[in-house]
């Protein structure tokens, strides 16, 4: 029997996907905040992509000023609550905590952050509001971390903002792509509702922008267009048999899991292809959904995996097994997936080479491809003058997020190629400032 | 080595160890005192007896520090509210069951006759000693008792004399710290014929103010009153007063040390400064009588390691080293050393020295380990005190120990600064930065966070200043 039983109800699903960073109670927040040393030029701040003044908000929590703490967090990062839960804090703020050098447990910054912001959200604390209207309008494409963060910042600067979202919920991968044990849908959406209530931007759901005609309409009605479009579906592997049923992309699998919970079908024997953080998530999730045998297959050695160590540990902790130095050559089966044919590999001078004659078939009834997401090049090709780099990322000014078409700005995965929520959120804040700078300069 | 002997004979009061419960709520009843003796306490000073009082509800307030509770504690409770006869009966019962433990009756009454009566009563009940409560700083003092007596040496002496007229057991006078010179009432106690003194009683205090109700703690129906402060936070004040009495040539009485004693270390500190018994209240109210096990075991271990056979081997052992400021060696020189291998890079030492001391620590590019600027370091200790890592910053001696010069000697030699701009001023020619060098210094570090950077970029559109005026 597997470590986890396949969940058949919401409570069972939530039990299998218990939050790895559960909410702190007031006592725990007091104890934990009391431990903070209030470092000078604190390394945690420098390690945070959004530069949250962490010692300040921890001190605010410690003195009973939780609302002030939430303000400190949101001033730097509009996804304050989500980031507290989904950030890889082990390699960011908490990884930089000086306690690590003393071999003392670092401050649980992420959980403290969520403690403060969640209280503000639940009590609907009015911390921010739109700035005085300046008569200018910005269209935001994509209601993910980048788009929503840009919208918040632009509203605070007095812009009218319309957000166009292809799906029916905001927050992008936060609600569609993050592992369910990192954050619940309810928690994500509560923060989104809170921000929308604070700033008053408009989100138009189920309104994908995909044609030149739609872009032209936006160009005609808005001063600037912000691209927060993220990435597309999972890359195809170009392998024979990839079309067989039960061979799915990780992004698609996780999206279904986040939306349909225990109604998501998972095989008994699952092979996950890939060595990045998404692969770790997908493997963990398959195991928590009750799969008896989950194998993580990666074409290089264990040390070369892109995933953070703690993510791999998390997967191992739920029974996932690693299979290294193997490259898939075919998805075998008869209509449905029945196995993956691998060839063994060896790495020589950084180059992965296959070992001739080492082919074998690993049986399974589900394959999850966690092999990266495609870029949205089709849409981007419709924007005149917009340049992409050789990896398909939008070329933009580092500070302002302005693209090679001056009326388009961007940040988030579409620009950085795929990073954390915190990166998208903080880059979008900067881009909104860039938009403001641009429109202030071009004022008639 | 034989186990050290913890027993004491305090002014004639014998006790198996020096740890007594102070006169307070933990000694309100025979039940509590028996339980304490059972747990290992050596003695107990009974909750003050007199004409029974009426107390308010809501009696205690706490001073918390971060997540630590009751770092300081205050109360507005009065003396015993139980009939004297009940207390006397229970004292008798405790003494029958624990003949070798110390039971001391704390007393507070007004007239000479009352004093005579109650002293006789508690003697007849079998008390080993008497403690006169001249210290309570709330409620009772407004009725001419407690600290009202302790603050008037002449009155104190008179009452002690009344007590001594009938006392056949040792008499301890408990002193209030709410006075400018604690040795004055101590000497009055001696003149009156007392056998010993105990100190300190609680310090008049307001322990905190409720920010929503605009009233001091503890709150009684929306109002509050000053109370008596005690607990770990008062230990330094108590230690100083114990030392003052122990060093004064005209006091010369055994001292029972009270104030902030929670563990064996606190007790040893009191003893090293001259106490030969110690009394505990707040810690027992916080953690219960069980703390005595740690106290006796710690004291025993310490005595073994130091080779002390009895408590008296250590009483007052630190007193010769407590001097007046003018007798300290001005030639002694320490400076700070940061032990790089232990440093975790919190830079608290840097900011503490920079803002709170003498700008004697600098930061260097490429490392979080700060560097001591030897020439600027006055050896104040601050960096070593704020450093969160044990032994990471040490204060190391720099003079060779061959020279000795005190303020007193300099005064005698006529080499002390005497004018406002005297060349002999200690800080003359000591480097200090120009005032304006402070402006914008390391602003990106002292006001960190992206939010501030955006606020700046909106106006200046320039990156944050780096190390302006700094030493990087």
Keyword list:
heterodimer, A: 444 residues, alpha/beta, Fumarate Reductase Iron-sulfur Protein, Chain B, domain 2, FAD/NAD(P)-binding domain, 3 domains, 5-stranded parallel β-sheet, 18 helices, B: 472 residues, TIM Barrel, Alpha-Beta Plaits, 8-stranded parallel beta barrel, 4-stranded antiparallel β-sheet, 15 helices, 20 strands, 31% helix, 18% strand, disordered C terminus
Structure, explained:
The complex is a heterodimer of chains A (444) and B (472). Chain A contains 18 helices and 14 strands. Chain A is of the alpha/beta class. Chain A folds into 3 domains: 19-122, Orthogonal Bundle (Fumarate Reductase Iron-sulfur Protein, Chain B, domain 2); 137-232 and 375-441, FAD/NAD(P)-binding domain (3-Layer(bba) Sandwich), CATH 3.50.50.60; 247-369, FAD/NAD(P)-binding domain. The longest helix of chain A has 21 residues, at 421-441. In chain B, the strands form 6 sheets. Chain B has an 8-stranded parallel barrel with strand order 3-4-7-8-9-10-15-16, surrounded by 8 helices. In chain B, strands 5-6-14-11 form a 4-stranded antiparallel β-sheet, with no helix packed on it. The longest helix of chain B is centred in the middle third of the chain and has 16 residues, at 291-306. Chain B has 3 domains: 8-321, TIM Barrel (Alpha-Beta Barrel), CATH 3.20.20; 325-432, Alpha-Beta Plaits; 440-472, no CATH class. In chain B, strand 18 (361-362) and strand 19 form a beta hairpin. Chain B has helices spanning 30-39, 84-97, 112-124, 147-150, 153-166, 183-192, 235-247, 264-272, 282-287, 291-306, 348-356, 382-386, 407-413, 443-446, 450-459; strands spanning 8-10, 13-15, 19-21, 43-49, 60-65, 68-75, 102-107, 129-133, 171-174, 196-199, 203-205, 209-210, 215-216, 227-230, 255-258, 275-280, 334-338, 361-362, 371-372, 393-397. Chain B is an alpha/beta fold and 472 residues long. The chains are: A alpha/beta (444), B alpha/beta (472). Chain A binds chain B through residues 30-31, 33-34, 37-43, 45, 50-53, 56, 62, 72, 75-77, 98-99, 101-102, 426, 429-430, 433, 436-437, and chain B through 66-68, 343-348, 350-351, 363, 368, 388-389, 442, 445-446, 448-451, 453-454, 457-458, 461.
């Amino acid at each position: 029997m597997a470590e986890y039983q396949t969940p058949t109800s919401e409570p069972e699903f939530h039990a299998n996907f218990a939050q790895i960073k559960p909410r702190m109670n007031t006592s725990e927040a007091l104890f934990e905040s009391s431990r903070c040393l209030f470092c000078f030029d604190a390394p945690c701040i420098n390690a945070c992509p959004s530069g949250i003044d962490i010692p300040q908000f921890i001190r605010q929590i410690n003195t009973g000023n939780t609302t002030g703490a939430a303000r400190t967090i949101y001033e730097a990062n509009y996804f304050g609550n989500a980031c507290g839960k989904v950030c890889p804090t082990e390699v960011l703020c908490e990884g930089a905590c000086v306690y690590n050098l003393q071999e003392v447990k670092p401050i649980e910054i992420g959980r403290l952050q969520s403690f403060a912001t969640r209280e503000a959200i639940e009590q609907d604390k009015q911390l921010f509001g739109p700035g005085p209207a300046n008569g200018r309008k910005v269209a935001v494409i994509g209601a993910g971390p980048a788009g929503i963060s840009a919208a918040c910042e632009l509203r605070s600067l007095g812009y009218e903002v319309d957000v166009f979202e292809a799906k029916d919920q905001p927050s992008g991968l936060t609600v569609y792509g993050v592992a369910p044990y990192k954050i619940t849908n309810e928690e994500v959406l509560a923060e989104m509702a809170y921000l929308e209530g604070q700033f008053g931007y408009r989100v138009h759901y189920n309104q994908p922008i995909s044609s030149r005609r739609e872009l032209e309409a936006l160009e005609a009605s808005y001063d600037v267009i912000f691209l927060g479009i993220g990435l597309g579906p999972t890359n195809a592997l170009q392998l024979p048999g990839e079309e067989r049923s039960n061979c799915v992309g990780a992004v698609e699998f996780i999206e279904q899991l986040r939306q349909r919970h225990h109604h998501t079908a998972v095989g008994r024997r699952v092979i996950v292809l890939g060595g990045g953080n998404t692969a770790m998530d997908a493997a963990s999730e398959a195991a928590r959904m009750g799969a008896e045998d989950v194998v993580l297959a990666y074409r290089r050695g264990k040390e070369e995996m892109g995933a953070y160590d703690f993510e791999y540990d998390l997967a191992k902790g739920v029974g996932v097994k690693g299979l290294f130095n193997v490259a898939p050559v075919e998805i075998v089966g008869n209509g449905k997936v029945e196995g993956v044919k691998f060839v063994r590999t060896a790495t020589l001078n950084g180059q992965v080479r296959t070992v001739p004659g080492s082919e074998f078939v690993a049986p399974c009834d589900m394959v999850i491809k966690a092999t990266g997401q495609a870029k949205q090049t089709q849409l981007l090709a419709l924007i005149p003058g917009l340049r992409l780099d050789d990896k398909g990322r939008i070329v933009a000014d580092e500070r302002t997020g302005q693209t090679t078409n001056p009326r388009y700005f961007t940040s988030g995965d579409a620009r950085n190629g795929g990073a954390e929520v915190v990166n998208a959120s903080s880059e979008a804040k900067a881009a909104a400032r860039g938009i403001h700078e641009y429109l202030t300069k071009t004022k008639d | 080595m034989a186990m050290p002997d913890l027993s004491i004979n305090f002014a004639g009061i014998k006790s198996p160890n020096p740890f007594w419960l102070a006169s307070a709520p933990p000694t309100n009843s025979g039940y509590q005192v028996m339980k304490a003796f059972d747990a290992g306490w050596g003695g107990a000073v009974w909750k003050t007896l007199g004409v029974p009082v009426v107390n308010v509800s809501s009696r205690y307030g706490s001073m918390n520090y971060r997540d630590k509770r009751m770092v300081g504690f205050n109360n507005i409770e009065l003396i015993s509210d139980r009939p004297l006869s009940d207390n006397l009966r229970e004292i008798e019962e405790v003494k029958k069951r624990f003949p070798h433990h110390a039971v001391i009756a704390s007393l507070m009454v007004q007239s000479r006759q009352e004093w005579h009566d109650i002293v006789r009563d508690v003697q007849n009940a079998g008390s080993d000693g008497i403690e006169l409560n001249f210290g309570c700083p709330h409620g009772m003092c407004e009725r001419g008792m407690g600290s009202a007596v302790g603050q008037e040496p002449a009155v104190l002496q008179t009452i002690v004399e009344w007590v001594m007229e009938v006392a056949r057991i040792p008499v301890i006078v408990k002193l209030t710290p709410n006075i400018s010179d604690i040795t004055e009432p101590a000497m009055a106690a001696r003149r009156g014929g007392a056998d010993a003194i105990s100190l300190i009683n609680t310090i008049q205090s307001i322990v905190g103010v409720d920010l929503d109700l605009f009233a001091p703690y503890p709150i009684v129906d929306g109002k509050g009153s000053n109370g008596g402060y005690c607990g770990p936070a008062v230990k330094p004040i108590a230690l100083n007063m114990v030392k003052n009495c122990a060093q004064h040539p005209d006091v010369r009485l055994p001292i029972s040390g009270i104030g902030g004693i929670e563990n064996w270390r606190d007790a040893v500190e009191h003893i090293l400064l001259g106490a030969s018994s110690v009394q505990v209240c707040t810690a027992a109210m916080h953690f219960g009588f069980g703390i005595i096990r740690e106290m006796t075991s710690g004291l025993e271990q310490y005595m073994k390691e130091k080779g002390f056979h009895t408590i008296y081997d250590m009483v007052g052992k630190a007193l010769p080293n407590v001097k007046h400021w003018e007798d300290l060696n001005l030639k002694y020189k320490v400076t700070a050393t940061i032990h790089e291998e232990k440093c975790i890079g919190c830079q608290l030492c840097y900011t503490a020295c920079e803002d709170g001391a003498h700008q004697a620590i600098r930061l260097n590019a490429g490392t979080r380990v700060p560097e001591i600027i030897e020439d600027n370091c006055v050896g104040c200790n601050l960096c070593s005190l704020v450093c969160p890592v044990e032994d990471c910053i040490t204060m190391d001696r720099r003079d060779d120990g061959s020279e000795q010069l005190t303020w007193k000697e300099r005064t005698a030699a006529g080499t002390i600064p005497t004018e406002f701009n005297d060349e002999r001023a200690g800080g003359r020619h000591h480097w200090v930065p120009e005032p304006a060098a402070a402006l914008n210094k390391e602003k990106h570090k002292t006001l960190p966070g992206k939010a501030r950077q955006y606020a700046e970029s909106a106006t200046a559109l320039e990156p944050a200043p780096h190390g302006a005026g700094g030493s990087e």
